[in-house]
Amino acid sequence: LKVKDISFVVGLMLVYIVMNNLLIFLFIPDHGTYIYGTETILFPLCGPYVVTAEQLFYHLNVILKNACSIPIVLLFVCTTNPSEFAASLNRIGVSYRISYAVALALRYIPDIQREYQDISQAQQARGLELSKKAPFFQRLRSISKILIPLILSSLERIDTISNAMELRGFGKNKKRSWYSGRPFTKGDVFAMALCVVLVIVSLLLTVLNGGRFFNPFA
């Protein structure tokens, strides 16, 4: 990834985190109180909107969750070979139909990005305003004129792929071979064992804590 791409991804991540927390507070301003079972009012705003310590702590957890998970997902998508990942999933017992569906989803993420850029440039050539000079709501309407063709083209691509797979008899046999399959190494076994241990520890902590939320207000 280039520095420009990284800064763009970080900007999108920050926008997502801010919008996510803002919408949570707008629609469920007392969700933190509901989760932790207590209410420590800091100061009221207007109407049903009251800032509580529980709600702020819940928003902090949401921010930490997004800040930790989104970069890992992006790193995984940008560095993983979809075919090798699908073959590995099938080797640990996942159905090859599900594995192949995961591979297709990962493989077409870059294609969707390129198609989005192509549609955006074509629309801008027709006079669609997407620069920062345009008002915010005008840019939102302009983005919708890009997303609708993108969704329609993606649906057409899905139909083409499904027809091609059906014509080739995909799913007829119980097992299949993988061209890009690789044997597991010691590092792969260690990583899988570490993931299993982390899942078990998280489940134990959830059971011992009485829930999946740490409650400092109890």
Describe this structure in words.
The model has no long low-confidence stretch (mean pLDDT 84). The chain is flat. A two-stranded antiparallel sheet has the order 1-2. It has 8 helices and 2 strands. With 218 residues, it is mainly α. A hairpin with a 2-residue loop joins strand 1 and strand 2 (49-52). The protein is 70% helix and 5% strand.
Strand order of the largest sheet: 1-2
Q: What best-fitting shape do the alpha-carbon axes yield?
A: flat
Arithmetic mean pLDDT: 84
Major beta sheet summary:
2 strands, antiparallel
In N-to-C order, the SSE pattern is: HHEEHHHHHH
Strand content: under 5%
For the record, give the distance between the C-alpha atoms at the N and C termini, rounded to a whole number: 45 Å
* Broad structural category: mainly alpha
Q: Which segments are poorly predicted (pLDDT under 50) over 5 or more consecutive residues?
A: none
Number of helices: 8
